[in-house]
Amino acid sequence: MKIQIINGPNLNLLGKREPGIYGNLSFDNYYEQLKKSYPDVEFDYFQSNTEGLLIDKLHEVGFSFSGIILNAGAYTHTSVALGDAIRAINTPVIEVHISNVHNRESYRHVSMIASACLGTISGFGMNSYRLAVEALINKEHK
Ligand code: DQA
Q1: d(CA 64, CA 38)
Q2: 97 catalytically annotated
Q3: Which terminus of the chain is more exposed, N or C, with fewer CB under 10 A?
């Protein structure tokens, strides 16, 4: 099983960025732990601050991987193009957020990608990614 994790803008600063909201752990540290917990899963990780590069990555893996876990950061709330890219590919995408976007500013309550995704996981800290992995594994074994 091949799972692509994609992080969007500002998520390269996890661990340094607004730790009260996003915690103290860098994504690289979390990713190492995650890979160890699922030795049978083949993971790939990609981060970009550029909308077009996120779309290119979705196109690249979206016809061969088993699942994609996407934290599109602020592009979640603005990007029609990312929603279209998710609709254009075959691989199921899970929308993930570290914070609970629904108890934050009202502009974060809107998602331009949610309707194109298999489901959304929001508000469980870094554990949101692990819950998304579980969802993809359970889907595979259904
Ligand atoms: C986020 C929530 C977004 O609203 C925000 O713009 C982010 C991170 C999260 O993981 O909680 O950059 O996607």
Answers
A1: 20
A2: yes
A3: C
